[in-house]
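Q: What would this chain look like folded?
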Amino acid sequence: MNNNDLRYFCVVADTLHFGKAAQKLHITQPPLTRAIKKLEDELGVLLFLRTQRKVVLTPAGEYLKRRGESLLSGLDELKKEVKKIDQGKSGQLHITSVGSIVPRILRYINHFTSVYPDVNIKLSQYTTTEQIKLIKSGEADIAFVRCPVSSQGLQMYEVYKEYYVLVTPSNFNIDISKADDLQQLSGKPYISFPREQGRGSFDQIISLCNMGGYSPEIKYEPYQLDTAIRMVEAGLGITIVPECSLHGLSVHVNVYKLDFMPHRSVVASYFSKT
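A: My prediction, written as structure tokens:
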């Protein structure tokens, strides 16, 4: 039994008229009659009782009509879903991000889900290094990370740029408007995420400091930027972080935008070329 034979049968079973069914199927009546005969021979049962005046379904025909219509409906739905998945309009999309970026990318995810409501979004937080591994292994589809990163074999799309900010305790004030002013921070305990968590961003921040003749004395290395900021609030030291790291945080600290520096944090999405 093939799909066409079953579809032909269901149309005849619905109309109970071979001529009308042939018209509905846009074929002539002889091939339709042959298809039904072939189906009956294959199943070894009569599906219709034919008289000169009418066509009626046999009990076997009634059963096949119920099951056949359900099967064809399921098959049509399956074809639609497969096509939508192939077009990226259905299925699951695994998005990864570093924690500080999540508030900024939620609006992009919200827009995506409004356009593709049948796609299930899985959002996970990982370090930059972990994300690149997940993309390359195929376990994640899109990674939002801070550049630069080693991305051989991956496609990159720049999402946005933002300034770095200096965060100090509320009782530590500084007049800072040029690179050399960073030297006033010498001797202060510095709070930084570990380099292995994001080598590109770490090196960029250190380079920014060195341009001003300042070498940070790293004393604490929390993994989360919000933890680093709260440690600053507690008076444990100072830190330099991307501006969006402060979004959603209610903390009493001093924040100085380093917009006079050429360095800016670049957030990009990475995905596999294949």
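Residues 59-86 form the longest helix (28 residues).
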